[in-house]
Amino acid sequence: MLLTLVSFLFFTGLVAILTWWITRRDDHDSSSGYFLAGRSLTFPLIAGSLLLTNLSTEQMVGLNGAAFTDGLCVMVWEVACVVALVFMAWFFLPRFLKSGVATVPEYLGIRFDHQTQVITNLIFLLAYVGILLPIILYTGATGMVGILDLPSMLGSLPELLGIDPETTALWLIVWCVGIIGSIYALFGGLRTVAVSDTLNGIGLFVGGFLITGYALSMLGGEGGISAGTQLLLDQQKERFNSIGSPESSVPFGTIFSGIFLLNLFYWTTNQQIIQRTFGASSLAEGQKGVLLTGALKLLGPIYLVIPGMIAFTMFNGQNIKADDSYGLLVRHTLPDHLTGFFAAAMIGAILSSFNSALNSSCTLFSLGLYKNILRQEASEKEVVKSGKIFGWIVAVVAMCIAPLLANTTSIFGYLQKMNGIYFIPIFAVVLIGMLTKRVPSLAAKIGLVAGFAVIVIGYFVPPFDMIVASLHDYHFLGIVFNWLMILMLVIGEIVPRETEFVQEDVGAVDMTPWQLAKPAGIILILIVFSIYVTFADFSVLGSNRS
Q: What is the CA radius of gyration of the chain?
């Protein structure tokens, strides 16, 4: 255990020192430098930061937990998102960069009006503070408790104080990660986040593949990885199916409704994720970074799905919680010195998502609310300072909420359900704004408020929640999205804008597209279809219906 702890501290400290060294001369005082990295990010940093911001423990712990329960079909969250990333490179990113915006609400302010921007800002902030940040901290703490076996490290001290060891370990990790992540995000700005993300991404990539390799080797015994792979295929033949059955968390039909929409929002409109693309030095660099992320996501099932399936074979019948399976697998398969290394990479993943969400929250508050509403005459330094103060408040709130999620059955399922509350209305409004020229701001405001309200009522208010329960959550989200699109288009026909919206190029960056963006995107989409066809067994749909 001492070796594990020493290697963990070494690798964590190494990333911190390298990040400080690389970014020590960066501009952290101006809003452009702090929130957009001075629009200087190149494609490796964009791809590394995009990938690791996504690859937090809600993915490592949550998605492997979902694979433990449902098998290969949950790869939809990794593989299908590649299509969304292609759309981001082709359609969404050029429009965002052309307007020179720092936030998605700022774009909606340009396309519609100031009130639309404020409403979107508030929805994003409520979602990040109440949903996203606490989930990142909770899943991170859950994974670390399992990997480092913290209750054992704490000994009998919690019991002497009358406190449950698991609860003590959970609170301890949540607050440690929250404080360290806040320091990264609030003192360093976006470039510091992007650099630390990229460095941690290397460790997480290596560690993720190591776990799959060591676990398969342990499964195969003397036969090694190949024997372990064959054993896994033989024992879980029916679970190696890209087609989700009606009983799974991702039935096949939902891929074309809510799941695709959630992926589209996440990779094209989610401020926490796409903010690093706003800091691209040019459109070409941004497109290369986004498409490189898509290529790397194709490898995701190897370390985000397969380990969960291996854990199912190893621990099935031991009555363990699905979300605990990944941490247990890591502790049982990796040598002590590599366990410390991977724990450091996991901490990096937690920090990445946490400080990215926190940095985005600060950006939304400072540029969207403080500068636009509260103090329009504020200087650059005052705007940055307001973001830091707001960030610390948000971080403390998230650290208090996170441990309260311990009773959640499936954290990944809970995350996707809660995300739909704000993903769907914001994405519908952004898409209408980009596809039409005469739909007025009134339609956008009604779409945001009505969409948010309808989903909340459908989830939580009787008897409407019974109607939603008769469907699937993702089908419900698809229905709401289509209803919102039709509603806003109808309003646009009844009371259209007096003049057509014309998007201006503000000259923030070079808008010359990457020449290979279209062929690279087509290749990625073809690979996605090939993966699905290779592992598809449609008979599961017929057998479940009968």
A: 23
Domain locations along the chain: 1-12+43-408
- pLDDT (0 to 100) of residue 522: 97
Look up residue 335 and give its two tokens. Answer: 């040598």
Report which of 296, 316, 258 is spatially closest to residue 479, judged by C-alpha positions.
258
Helix (H, G, I), strand (E, B), or coil: what is residue 282? strand
1-12+43-408: CATH superfamily: Sodium/glucose cotransporter (1.20.1730.10)
Per mean pLDDT, which range of 176-190, 352-366, 392-406, 521-535 is the poorest? 176-190
Inform me whether the pLDDT recorded for 33 exceeds 60.
Answer: no
Question: Alpha helices of 128-270 — where are they, by DSSP H?
Answer: 133-148, 150-154, 157-160, 165-188, 190-220, 224-235, 258-268
| Distance (Å, whole) CA 110 – CA 432 | 14
What does the alpha-carbon distance between residue 263 and residue 403 come to, in Å, rounded to a whole number?
A: 27
Which residue has tokens 């001492």? Answer: 2
Distance CA 512, CA 378 (A): 34
Task: Say how far apart CA 47 and CA 117 lie, in whole Å.
Answer: 28
**What 3-state class would DSSP assign to 514?**
coil
Q: How far is CA 352 from CA 161, 193, 450, in A?
A: 33, 7, 33
Query: Which whole-number Å values give the CA distances from 271 to 110, 299, 462, in the listed order?
Result: 16, 24, 32
3-state secondary structure 234-249: HHCHHHCCCCCCCCCC
- Determine phi and psi for 542, rounding to 5 degrees: -65, -40
DSSP secondary structure, 307-359, as one string = HHHHHHHHHTTS---GGGHHHHHHHHHS-HHHHHHHHHHHHHHHHHHHHHHHH
Say whether pLDDT at 531 is over 90. yes
d(CA 150, CA 298): 33
Residue type, 180: I
Closest to 378 (Cα-Cα) out of 394, 362, 389, 367? 367
CA distances from 259 to 66, 77, 131, 256, 463 (A): 15, 8, 18, 7, 25
Distance CA 173, CA 162 (A): 19
Say whether pTM exceeds 0.85.
no
Amino acid of residue 351: L
Q: Is the pLDDT of residue 206 over 60?
A: yes
